[in-house]
Every structure is written in C-alpha cells, then in structure tokens.
Amino acid sequence: MLQNWLKIAFINYKKNWLSTIINLFGLTIGLTGFMLILMHWNDEESFERWNPKKDNIYYFQTYYKKDNSYGGAISIPLAENALKQISEVQDYVLINGMEIAYKMTTKNKTAYQQGGLAASENFFNLFPFKLVAGSYKDVLKNDNNIAISNVVAKNLFGKTEVAGETIKINTKDYIVTAVYELPKENSQIKPDFIFKPAEQLKNDKEAWGNFNYGCFFLLRKEADPRSFEKKFLDIIMLRAKINSKGAGVTPQQFIDMYGPTDSLLTPIERIKLHSEMTWFGKPDFKSLMILFTLSVLIVILSAINFINLKTAQASQRAKEIGVRKAIGSTKYSLILQFLMETFLICFASYLLSLALTELLLPSLNKFYDKEIVMNDWHIYFYSFLMVALVTLVSGLIPALYLSNFKAIETLKGNFARSKNGVWLRNGILTLQLIISSFFIIGGLIVNQQVKYMMNKDLGFNGKQIFQIDFNEDNNGKPWLKYERLRTEMAKIPGVESVSFAEAPPGTNNQSTSNMDYMDKSIQARHGSMDYNYPQFMGVKLLKGRWLDPKLSSDTINNALVNEAFLRRFGWTDEQAMKREIRPGFDDKAYRIVGITKDFNIRSLKSEVEPMIFFHYRETTWKRYNVSNIQLKLKADDIDGTVKRLKTYWQNSVEPGYPFNSYFIDKQFAKTFETYQKQQTLFTILNAMVLMVALLGLFALSSLMIEQKLKDVAIKKTLGASDGNLIVGLTKQFLWITFIAVLVSIPISYYLMNEWLKDFAYRIDMPVLPFILSMILLLILTFAVVSIKAYQATKVNLVKYLKYE
C-alpha cells in the first residue's frame, strides 16, 4: 500500500510540477528564515548558562514609582544591609566599570591590555571561572591583588603559571593571585583581568545614595526571590530614615521623592533578554519577538500556498478518489495518503532549508556580530516540529476536503463544474494577501521612521569634530593633562578649536542624580565640560549666557540646563534664571545662568532628558572624569590633520597606547544601527513574503484559469475580445486583493502604531503606505494573473469545443 501511495504521489508531483516547485521553494524559504531567527533567539537565551551557580544568582534592579522606571545599579550600604538582614541572601558581588584598559608592564614586556573589570573581592564566589594557576582564596582581598585570564598571562609573561608575579599599572604594582580561563559559552561577563577598586569602595562605603555599582545576589537554595523583594522594602526604609534627616522630610516622603520604591531580582540566565535594566544596558526582547513572529508568518504563507494549490488541484484528482472509494478505500486511509504526500514535500523542504541555513549562517553571524554554529539539537528539534505542524495544517485541510468527495458525483464527471472548494480557496488566498499587505505597509512605515530619525535635527553639529580618548597620567590629575593638551594640540595645522565634555553624543557616560528645589525633586543627567563646549558643538542658547572663563563663579557654582530640565520642574525661562538647585552629586547649590535648546546625546529612541552642564573644575570629583579631548578640524584637509594628530599622539602623548579616536557624528550614527538592522531585516522579509505570495498566486491562478478554458473558448467563439476575457479572468483576484488590503489596514495600523510607541521621536502615522500597499498589490496581482489570463485567450478552440 505504501509503495502504491508513493507511486501516486510522485505521479502527481510530476504532473503538477510548477505547484510542486513553488511549494518546495516557499516552504524552504520560510523554514530557512524561521531557523535563522530561532538560532539568533536561542543564542541570546544561552547567556550565563555556563555558570554552575546560575540557578541561585540574580541581578538586582531598583524601581522608581514616580517615574515608572527601573535602574540597574545599587549602593554599597544597600547591598551590605541586604546581606545582613535578608536571610535568603548568601553572598553578593558588585561590579563597577566594564572594558577597562591599562598599559601593563612586567619584567620583560609592556602591553596595552583591554577588557578589565572592577569588582568586589568575592567576585569568583559567584563567577567560578576555571582556575589555571594560583588560588581563589582571598584572591582580591588586598588592594594590590589582580586576577588575569590565561590569554593575558601568555601575552604578558609567555606562560600561565604566573601566580605571585608583579604587574605594574601606572605607578602601582599589582600581584597576580590567580590565573583563570574564561568560559567558551556566551556570557556578558568575560573580563580579561579583574581588580578591586579599593579607593572607590572605601569612599562609597557609607554613601547610601551613590548608586555606582551593578549587583548580583547569590541566594540560598530554594530561596524565593519575591521574598527578598518584600524584605528589601525594609532596607529602603532604613536608608530613608538615615538620609531623610538631612533633607528635612519624613522617611516616606524621602522615598516618594528620591526612591527607589521597590526592587526586582532577575535570574542571571535571563538578564540578557528579560531584565528591565542592567549594568550592560536595557534588553530589547520586543524586537526579537517581532522578528520571530515575522519569520513564523512567512512559514504560514508557505502553508497557505500549499493549502490553496492542493484544493485547486482537487478536480484533477476527483476521479482517482472516486475510484479508490468505489473499490473500498476508507476516508481514514485517504487522509493518511494525502498527509504523507504533504509530509514528503515538507521534509524535502526541511532538508533544503538546513543546507540553505548553513550557507546563510555566516552572513547572519556577520550581521549580528556573533559566532553561532548549527550544533544545538534544539534548532533541529523545533524546526522539525514546525515541519510537522506545517504538514498537519497544510496537509489536513486539503486531505479532509479531498477525502469528502462523493464517489458517485466524481465518477459522473460533474465535479469540475461544481462550486465546491471555491470559498475555501478564496478565504485562504485572502488571508495570504492580508499578510502580504501588512508586510508592505510595515516595511514602508519602518523605512519612513528610520529615515526620519536619520534626518532629524539633533540640536548639535558633530561634523568635523574628532574625539581622542586618553589615559590617566602618572600624577593622577587627568584635567591637568587635558589643559596641557588643549594648548599644544590647538597649534597643530588643521585644528580649528579644542574642547572637552564628559558626556559626548553617542555615549552612555552621563551620570544621573536628583536635582532638588524646595520640596520638589527630579532626576537629571549631568556632565562636566569645558567653557566653550556648547558653542563648540553648535548648541543653541535660549536664555541667559554661556559659561565664561573670565568669571571665577563659573568654576564654583554656575551651570547651564536644557529645556527638558525646565519642563520637568514646570518652570518658565524667567523663573529658571532666578533659581538655585541642589544636585545630589554635590554638597552646594548651583545657580542657573543659561538655558540651552534640547539636543540629543543618546539614541533618538529616548526622549531628551533633563540635563545640567557645568565646568569640570566646579565639582571636585568630576575633574577626575576628564578623559578625552575633542578637536574641530578644518574641512580642507581632514585626512591630513588626522594623520598629524595620530603622529603627535603616538610620539609625544601616549607612546605604546592605541590611538582611540572617532568622529562624533559617526559615533552617534551607531545609535541608529539597531533600527537600520530592523529596516534591513524587514526589507528582506518583505521581499521573501512577496515572492512566496506572488508565486503562490501565480500557481493558483494558473490552476483556476485552466479549469475555465472551456468557458473561455465558448466566449471567444461568441465574439469576446482578448481584453474582455483578460479582465473577466482577473476580476475575481482583483476583488480578493482589494478586500484583503481593506482588512489589513486596521490590523497594520494597530501593530505599527504599537511599534512606533517605542520611539520618543517618531513620525505621525502616514497615510501613503496604506494607499501604496493597495495600489502595489493590485498591480502585482493583475500582472501575475494576467500572464496566465493572456495565455488563456490563445486557447485552441477546436480542442475544447469539438465534443460540445
């Protein structure tokens, strides 16, 4: 029986070769897209799974009810009191800074080493990397202890057994206490060397409000993280009782004003995608889900093609089914036969998609900067599960439809002239076109949003501004190094002007702190700068004046704020110019002397936040954050000027260090990369969807028009013109397309509006994409169907009328 089924299947594949190829092609494309996105998702979910303690490690986040926002940092007193007072806590580790870089010197070699991490001394208790040399006992206990990876050990010493060796960083000697091997698996925490920021930890030990650290808590086995969160409310209140005394408010008022009001623990293996905010940034799970959903839609489109083509071919198999039923074949065996035929196509598509996925995987890795390989059984399992599901859905509907044919009707030969199946085909074709219309509308809206962001006035001009990051001098006073460089580098030919900002556009260097005025407090970003920086960047002044080097008060307590700062306080320009605010990062009041127009420092996805700017000498600790110099280059010889700057830097400023530099506008452009990638992927998926849909439409229209060739012959004999015949044959498909687009419009509007809500600066919902989708799909439908319709008008009249 199976051999007979296979023989019948291959006869029908050959007879309907066009629809067979289209089904194979569509399913292969759909499954390939599904597997690639699934591998990307699986890779994102695999972070931190290497850690043997992962089931009990959680990342700590704060919640601020006033702003309905989450923070990814903690202060030392909060963490220490959590360890002391919450029974669920076994240990914790603090991290401060990532990708730290130093020039390291040993007896035999000097090398610039990147990828460092500052962490509290119990780091290896939560992150037990494989130990190569030394010991983890008291590994970071002393201020001059350092642990290094085996890669760094080989680079500096030529071997890994280097415990006890000395590394000089600036003027300080560090003792290597451990050498470890980093996990090969995915992790956001892969430091090449680890040290304890002893001075900072000492200074912050009693500072409840200095949220300067990312924090991982190790909970006891079977501990409930929700119980931790409830108990942490007591620690929040403890902090409020201590800090509220100096603020002149009650503890509850202090919490309401400054927060945090609650906490959240996220399992370490979920923080890459499912946390609210971390030290490594905010996850973007929503975009991943959109991509995955779109890939599933392509598979659904392929399944729709299959269903449509199978039901359209029903008349060709009507007599076969009638004969099989007449000789005793059951409905169950017919369903099994048709399901087997579907599975053969789906399985062949699965094998082809595996090969195509392997070919496209290097491009995906390059696109996402990953190293994914096809060695995870989950990929094969879930993709095969999708194949089984497609087989069941796209095979069962036609199978039930075909197996329900009545033997008497089919053997009489009347089936081809019946209306059975038309509603099913039209309904499924409509669904296919609805999905196609959504992709067209969505693709056009994504393109418009990305284009809008790329062309939006940012409020500053970063063209020709070249930034060089520098390392701290041996004297430990980086602001003095900047001031020396400012004078010397201004003399280099091609340099127009020089300045500095702690928080240049395109970076996340900005710190956040509370800004208080009377009984009101807001959170605002703050950054130190040189006097001329706003003018240097082309920022507009709305009210007041710029900072002036001739006024000593401008290095004491004067500051500039932006429009968003005023909006958050609810002040007018005139009111702001009379105010003094107390920032949480200093113990003195700051007077507002100027108001700037809003300008974007971070991604355009986020709204411009309240910001305050002041001279780097104004706040004692801020001068230690001076770590770059920015130069505006003359336009006539930019390449030559960059070469001169590089030569000067490597010969006279930091010999032996890499030349870390970039243009500000190009750095800010990196904030668009995520959305440009979304645009690219949406365009690719759009092309795939249209290709699959149009090929399916062509095959379906071919089968349906072939069933009408006798009607065409009769009409042509009676004098119908080719034009009328073509319109008559395509009219049904055009109506289906028109209805499908109308149905897709509210669906597309809702979904794309939800996507646009993620952007603080977004386009108004445009009308043109909806109109273009209608026009484009009607034109494509007419073009595809009219090809077969035109061929039908050339029908051989004798062939179809000789028996009438």
TrEMBL record:
<feature type="transmembrane region" description="Helical">
    <location>
        <begin position="681"/>
        <end position="705"/>
    </location>
</feature>
<feature type="transmembrane region" description="Helical">
    <location>
        <begin position="767"/>
        <end position="790"/>
    </location>
</feature>
<feature type="domain" description="ABC3 transporter permease C-terminal">
    <location>
        <begin position="293"/>
        <end position="404"/>
    </location>
</feature>
<keyword id="KW-0547">Nucleotide-binding</keyword>
<dbReference type="Pfam" id="PF12704">
    <property type="entry name" value="MacB_PCD"/>
</dbReference>
<keyword id="KW-1003">Cell membrane</keyword>
<dbReference type="GO" id="GO:0005524">
    <property type="term" value="F:ATP binding"/>
</dbReference>
<feature type="transmembrane region" description="Helical">
    <location>
        <begin position="423"/>
        <end position="446"/>
    </location>
</feature>
<feature type="domain" description="ABC3 transporter permease C-terminal">
    <location>
        <begin position="685"/>
        <end position="796"/>
    </location>
</feature>
<feature type="domain" description="MacB-like periplasmic core">
    <location>
        <begin position="20"/>
        <end position="231"/>
    </location>
</feature>
<keyword id="KW-0812">Transmembrane</keyword>
<keyword id="KW-0378">Hydrolase</keyword>
<dbReference type="GO" id="GO:0005886">
    <property type="term" value="C:plasma membrane"/>
</dbReference>
<protein>
    <submittedName>
        <fullName>ABC transport system permease protein</fullName>
        <ecNumber>3.6.3.-</ecNumber>
    </submittedName>
</protein>
<feature type="transmembrane region" description="Helical">
    <location>
        <begin position="21"/>
        <end position="41"/>
    </location>
</feature>
<keyword id="KW-1133">Transmembrane helix</keyword>
<keyword id="KW-0067">ATP-binding</keyword>
<dbReference type="Pfam" id="PF02687">
    <property type="entry name" value="FtsX"/>
</dbReference>
<keyword id="KW-0472">Membrane</keyword>
<dbReference type="InterPro" id="IPR025857">
    <property type="entry name" value="MacB_PCD"/>
</dbReference>
<dbReference type="InterPro" id="IPR050250">
    <property type="entry name" value="Macrolide_Exporter_MacB"/>
</dbReference>
<dbReference type="GO" id="GO:0022857">
    <property type="term" value="F:transmembrane transporter activity"/>
</dbReference>
<feature type="transmembrane region" description="Helical">
    <location>
        <begin position="733"/>
        <end position="752"/>
    </location>
</feature>
<feature type="domain" description="MacB-like periplasmic core">
    <location>
        <begin position="432"/>
        <end position="646"/>
    </location>
</feature>
<feature type="transmembrane region" description="Helical">
    <location>
        <begin position="288"/>
        <end position="309"/>
    </location>
</feature>
<dbReference type="InterPro" id="IPR003838">
    <property type="entry name" value="ABC3_permease_C"/>
</dbReference>
<feature type="transmembrane region" description="Helical">
    <location>
        <begin position="377"/>
        <end position="402"/>
    </location>
</feature>
<feature type="transmembrane region" description="Helical">
    <location>
        <begin position="334"/>
        <end position="357"/>
    </location>
</feature>
<dbReference type="GO" id="GO:0016787">
    <property type="term" value="F:hydrolase activity"/>
</dbReference>
